[in-house]
């Protein structure tokens, strides 16, 4: 293997390179900032310490780190990797762990909404804060273990597949990639779609039932109706999050299965990666659009009112 030659840099106008740097840098900073607001909001305000919000918190942590992954992608724009073979493996490792954990969070969110809508009487018993925290930890641990198993050869000798100085190449055999896509894409997406189809059907039937009985409900019954509406709204919001994730994630998985050197151009691969990363920036915007409590939290955080004593007990719902 000859490593005396330098990596080949793509030829593009300076203006295009500067524009790409600016756009990716902006998306990176925006992704980190918006998800940091979600993390602070759910962590700080006690009213938001619910099982569902714990899942949203973990998803926001994943999306927050995606903002930093974009910084690595920015370094790789001109086709050369300048920070060493070990950091190359670390970059791909972080990318895999964050991607896998994000998929796991989407599955857990779907299960949470399924139980809340389809079996509301047992929701508080089956879905507890402690159980959700255990599931979240297991999700991250499993992602780390899968990364170690799939890229063990690359971990033993970083840079062994590089053909020139400045390359960042990670190799996995085809059956490993197929198994990875099945475990981290096909099966999870199937579970998510099946659960949300069931949630959608039940939510529609509940909405019809609420409209037909809205006139005759008692005060106690109206509270139950409000609670049901809240659960349906949460399911709809998180359904949008899941739907956007699937749209952004499908091309990414297709690229991971394809032979990138022969089937796809470098620009196409870069676009697919950026589309997937941009999904992490969209999630907080979806929360801001559908959740009034998140908009209120942003105001309290930006105006530094959370620094006041007892601010964690603020009524934001």
Automatic annotation (TrEMBL):
- How is it placed in the membrane, per its record? Multi-pass membrane protein
Where is this protein localized, as stated in its record?
Cell membrane
Q: Which UniProt keywords apply?
A: Cell membrane, G-protein coupled receptor, Membrane, Receptor, Transducer, Transmembrane, Transmembrane helix
Superkingdom, according to UniProt? Eukaryota
One GO term in the molecular function aspect is: trace-amine receptor activity
A GO-annotated cellular component: plasma membrane
Indicate the segments forming the G-protein coupled receptors family 1 profile domain, all copies. Answer: 34-287
PANTHER family reported for this sequence: HISTAMINE RECEPTOR-RELATED G-PROTEIN COUPLED RECEPTOR, TRACE AMINE ASSOCIATED RECEPTOR 19P-RELATED
Q: Which family does the record assign?
A: Belongs to the G-protein coupled receptor 1 family.
Q: What is this protein called?
A: G-protein coupled receptors family 1 profile domain-containing protein
- Lineage of source species: Eukaryota, Metazoa, Chordata, Craniata, Vertebrata
